[in-house]
Amino acid sequence: MTGDMATVTGNRGLVIEEPLIFEQGSPAKCGVDLPDPADKPDRLGGLARSGAIGLPGLSEPEVVRHYTRLSQKNYAIDAGFYPLGSCTMKHNPRLNERMARLPGFADLHPFQPQATVQGALAVMHHLSDWLLGLTGMEAVALSPAAGAHGELCGMQAVRAALDARGEDHRRTVLVPDSAHGTNPATAALCGFKVRGIPGDATGRVDVAAFKAALDDTVAGVMLTNPNTCGLFERDMVELAEAVHAAGAYFYLDGANFNAIVGRVKIADLGVDAMHINLHKTFSTPHGGGGPGAGPTVLSAALAPFAPLPHVVAEGDGVRLIEHIEGDMQPFGRMKGFHGQFGVFVRALSYMMSLGRDGLRQASGDAVLNANYLMARLGDTLTASFEGPCMHEALFDDRFLKGTGVSTLDFAKAMIDEGFHPMTMYFPLVVHGAMLMEPTETESRETLDAFCDAVLALAAKARAGDAAFFTEAPRHTPRRRLDETKAARTPVLRWEPPAPARAAE
Amino acid sequence: MRYLPLTDEDRRAMLARIGAASVDDLFSDVPAAAWTAPEGFDALPPHATEMAVERQLSALAARNVPAGSVPCFLGAGAYRHHIPASVDHLIQRGEFLTAYTPYQPEVSQGTLQTLFEFQTQVALITGMEVANASMYDAATGVAEAAAMACRITRRKHVLVSGGVHPHYGAVTESFLRYTDIATEVLDPNPLGIEDLMGRVSEKTACVIVQNPDFFGNLADLSALAAECHALGALLVVAVAEPVSLGLVTPPGEMGADIVVGEGHAIGSPLNFGGPGVGLFASRKKFVRHMPGRLAGETVDEDGRRGWVLTLSTREQHIRREKATSNICTNSGLIALAWTIHMTLLGEAGFTKLARLNHMKAVEMVERLEQVPGLQVMTRQFFNEVLVRLPGHDAAGIVETLAERGILAGVPLSRFHPNYPELADALLLCATETTETQDIDALANALTEVLR
């Protein structure tokens, strides 16, 4: 901050500079009162730690203030519009948080006798019923921890099924060029080679190229639908039939399930496996980067290979199966304990709240909101493909041509206007992509305010005011950060200053 | 519906602006064969009020026995500790709870600074040089550590000690099953006497051990580390109970190359086992091989210190099939809870908490050693031990005691049903939440049922 805007402290009203915890406090302080331990001889076998660890000491009020101040330097859905494409940043209902904190859920040990956790196992079973009812699929593996982990679950099931068939010549996975980067990463981890499939002029998979690539070396296909251009793959049923005719499996990336939930059962699309991001479609909070959950639904062909544990209804109760029984052929175990249980409770609370009718309304409103953005912005920004779009609207940077303003600059100017930017430079199939996903939990007033701001910014860019964009953001706790410096000379932890080290 | 702000009037006006007759028309690209009418979902219930959902879920919760409502001695990778009230208050601030991964650093400095502090705390307590911004949990963290060791050493053989948590071993085996890496998981090793040194060779990428191990044994890993390094292999050390690091020599000081920890026990409730948070630390020279996100220090255009996610060219959303890991969304909020709890504890609180845990376990062991027909097997431990109940089925004993309102540990048969010689073995753990009267109740009940 320069000139007459500067303050003597560097603070700016509600935005207060906050040092690291390591630059505060003293070893004499502590924010927790504990009883004194007994003074018995230890049984550590001579392996007691020697010397100080170097952790700072702060009292409780100092700790509360530290994290409160830091929180105020974050943008969040609670604070404003967050149209981050492909991320489904919808409202996170607080009922879900309250339910997850009931002691009967939060204070359960994973290895209590099963008779003492029947309610928890029932939660897992109800969640499975919802996921199967919404997708029409045969089975669900609840344990994957997030989207990429769910992809891994689905593709490992594909690999296990091929191994069971003795088809070790099938080692190619087809992935469209518009796919999430996690798709090829996942396929590679399962021992598959990735072959890219081009898109057509309408933003969808090129059906002819797709079919031409299907031969007896193909293990499976990974497709996102609605795809990352925000469009429904119209030919999906035909594609799935061709995949199955070729002896391969169809993996659907469920990152965009929010667009079709309560309207399309993905089993009807010919899908063999799909992960479901509970932290997207079913409203569990992103928490600044997790935890999520990526339960993976499976077709009858892949169900026998679902990883452990399984949850089955038996008599009046529910049983957790942790080891192989009968003819099940699980490919293994993906996660410690029984999966992201706390996330399951939140997602179930959301499903029960919206119900079958509310979920259908939610996907309808999500798609309506995205099409409304497309309608209001499409004449000014450049829409990459013809609509209608699904739950997200894709634009590229043609409207900025010759202005000296990039997609990144435009996004940073949006931050100054109080909006979180859209997803940028993804998908890779269009130049300077801007992918906007409004979700169903935004009002028309919010969408209008956002569109008004974006249209005004576009006019400003075209009027030649490039500096307004290239110098943005100006009103944030920090201006643009030097990412090159961060990567060239990585500083990944605090180190004590040199004089303090000498004094040790 | 309370989560949906659009009114019917909004919808009409918006459809008019779009030029569509109905919302269903916007789905015209969906083939008719894949379209389900509302009746197609009739098997699922309709929407419900907040009151109704709360009533139904509370009824399910009431069917469980919360661990804190009875004397509880369960560990086996999930440890029950007291969580200061301010932790849960702070992580529920919407600015933390409802933010995405901090891709836009100018409006994410709060999350990024907490991650930088988290990384520093993890590095300090493990005795390592650098740490990442978290993994899903320890099990997936160990699997990623194995893959990382193979990248660094360009070797293809991973050796997992029989003292490692069975879930960590199983997840590692599954994760690497379809790669060209061979994972060898040794038989369960309750007494900590397997010969790992004799099994390391010039082909070994890494040896994975746990300290304290799954059966509670503490070990000095220095000699094993030296042997690994002499043969060009890495030593990966898992820590299932992070509180132990407040009292026990950290893996970094024993020569570990990668340390993986389960962090949930600090800052988060048991949650029936998830979500957890994987702690992941290593030597600085390996940082470009590390999985997961990293927060790094830099400056902004005005020269002020700030933080960004860095070295992301390792990650799959950028690097696609050449990525160094399978993790994308990780465990940010659980890492936040961990770092807040750790900050509240500080040096004095963390070391005292650890000593308190150990002393409670010593008290428990001294009392159990007086129970006829029970043998404490673990000689040197932190807060968990293995006991044997010769002539008894430990799982049956645990169920009997559960009916009496005591959660009396974890029988090994739950993990190793195919090892009849372990059927009488039981893991018992004490923490700062364990009261003397709880220990008395356990010892008295065991004395009765073992008679």
UniProtKB/TrEMBL annotation, chain A:
GO terms for cellular component: cytosol; glycine cleavage complex. This is glycine dehydrogenase (aminomethyl-transferring). Residues 167-287 form the Aminotransferase class V domain. The glycine cleavage system catalyzes the degradation of glycine. The P protein binds the alpha-amino group of glycine through its pyridoxal phosphate cofactor; CO(2) is released and the remaining methylamine moiety is then transferred to the lipoamide cofactor of the H protein. GO terms for molecular function: glycine binding; glycine dehydrogenase (decarboxylating) activity; pyridoxal phosphate binding; transaminase activity. It catalyses: N(6)-[(R)-lipoyl]-L-lysyl-[glycine-cleavage complex H protein] + glycine + H(+) = N(6)-[(R)-S(8)-aminomethyldihydrolipoyl]-L-lysyl-[glycine-cleavage complex H protein] + CO2. Residues 484-504 are annotated as: Disordered. Keywords: Aminotransferase, Oxidoreductase, Pyridoxal phosphate, Transferase. SUPFAM superfamilies: PLP-dependent transferases (SSF53383). It comes from Roseospira navarrensis. Its EC number is 1.4.4.2. Residues 363-461 form the Glycine dehydrogenase C-terminal domain. It comes from the Bacteria. Pfam families: Aminotran_5, GcvP2_C. One of its GO terms (biological process) is glycine decarboxylation via glycine cleavage system.
TrEMBL record, chain B:
It catalyses: N(6)-[(R)-lipoyl]-L-lysyl-[glycine-cleavage complex H protein] + glycine + H(+) = N(6)-[(R)-S(8)-aminomethyldihydrolipoyl]-L-lysyl-[glycine-cleavage complex H protein] + CO2. Residues 1-445 form the Glycine cleavage system P-protein N-terminal domain. Pfam families: GDC-P. Its EC number is 1.4.4.2. InterPro entries: GcvPA, GDC-P_N, PyrdxlP-dep_Trfase, PyrdxlP-dep_Trfase_major, PyrdxlP-dep_Trfase_small. It is an enzyme of class 1 (oxidoreductase). One of its GO terms (molecular function) is glycine dehydrogenase (decarboxylating) activity. The glycine cleavage system is composed of four proteins: P, T, L and H. In this organism, the P 'protein' is a heterodimer of two subunits. Belongs to the GcvP family. N-terminal subunit subfamily. This is Probable glycine dehydrogenase (decarboxylating) subunit 1. It comes from Roseospira navarrensis. The lineage of its organism: Bacteria, Pseudomonadati, Pseudomonadota, Alphaproteobacteria, Rhodospirillales.
